[in-house]
Amino acid sequence: MKAAFMLHNIVVAAFLLIFGSYAAAMAGEAEDKAALDRLFAELQQADAQQAGRIEDDIWRIWSRSGSPAMDLLLERGRKAMEQGDIEAATDHLTALTDHAPEFAEGWNARATVFFHAGRYGQSVADIQRTLVLNPRHFGALAGFGAILEQLERKPQALEVYRAALAIHPQMQGVLDAVKRLEAEIAGQEL
């Protein structure tokens, strides 16, 4: 009887641990969604300095997968990219996208690596996946605009950059690109 009681306690404890972890993860996701909604609303009204702080907060939330192991793969992939080790970055981020296919930032980070490697087709595929998972990902849109610009598809690049600015109106690099492309396109039309 004592063994059955101990087994019952272990099963109940395991259930509570699993359910508690699941409930905590779900609560964390709800908190992140609410925080992101608030941050994106603030971003629409922010000046350039405020936008920088808000953007950092958004990236911090986007960089949390909910798994310490997946977060470590993202960190290692980004670090390898910063160090110019494209092969290691690709390996880490491919492992991340394989093991956490619903984590948009894994796809976005790998898209960035592919962009820096000049592998635009693979980058666009990962950008597409990022945007399916996170339609407000202004970084992915900016990256797509940059690829279109590199491919001399300037009207399309301008359209994508404008879509990024609709989400994040203070992206200085994108604002500069829009001005430049508007001037170039206007000059071509004359």
Return the structural class.
mainly alpha
Count helical runs. Answer: 9
Write down how many β-strands occur, each being a DSSP E stretch of 2 or more residues: 0
Low-confidence sequence ranges: 12-17, 19-27
What share of residues are in beta strands? under 5%
- Can you tell me the overall shape? globular
Oligomer kind: single chain
- Give the helices and strands as they follow along the chain: HHHHHHHHH
Overall radius of gyration:
21 Å
Largest sheet: none
What's the pLDDT, averaged over the residues? 89
Range of helix content? over 70%
Distance separating the two termini: 91 Å
List its salient traits.
190 residues, mainly alpha, 84% helix, Tetratricopeptide repeat protein
What this model shows, in words?
With 190 residues, this protein is mainly α. It is 84% helix and 0% strand. The chain has nine helices and no strands. The chain has helices spanning 2-45, 48-62, 68-82, 86-99, 104-116, 120-133, 138-150, 154-167, 172-189.
In short:
The chain is 84% helix and 0% strand.
Can you lay out the helices and strands and say which pair or pack?
Blueprint: H1 2-45, H2 48-62, H3 68-82, H4 86-99, H5 104-116, H6 120-133, H7 138-150, H8 154-167, H9 172-189
